[in-house]
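Record 1 of the preview.
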Amino acid sequence: MTDVVFYEKPGCLSNAKQKQLLAGLGHRLSVRDLLAEPWTAARLRPFFGDRPVPDWFNASAPTIKSGALDRCALDEADALALMVADPLLIRRPLIEALDLRCAGFEPGPMLDALGVQLPASADLQSCSRDAGQPSCDELQALAPRHGLTAQFAAEADPR
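->
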């Protein structure tokens, strides 16, 4: 049993599946709100390791999906500054355990250390919403325009 700090976006269906898997393996989760965390560039950077900068981003974030932000054109400093200003851009979950840190829920050193073995066909990283539905991030971005809180929008669809 390992203590795991799990930074999620509340209401994210994929994060719920990831937490369920980790808890099912007997890990103790300390779940934190990725969007409310007081990030700094120095604190955020270690989660990305040696991954290329474009892989640091949440592909479902509205500014990424719309093409308004070209993550391939950013250097480390600019990418981190954008993520600190808008945590929706951060690839999630962020996980800390066993002196390791990672961004995303994909095979690699962190999941290996936690005993997570995903079949090659398993995808617990991508958005779990059905095709054609707005992502949780898109709902969250639209919420203020419609007089809703971001948390309400993220949890509006119980699937």
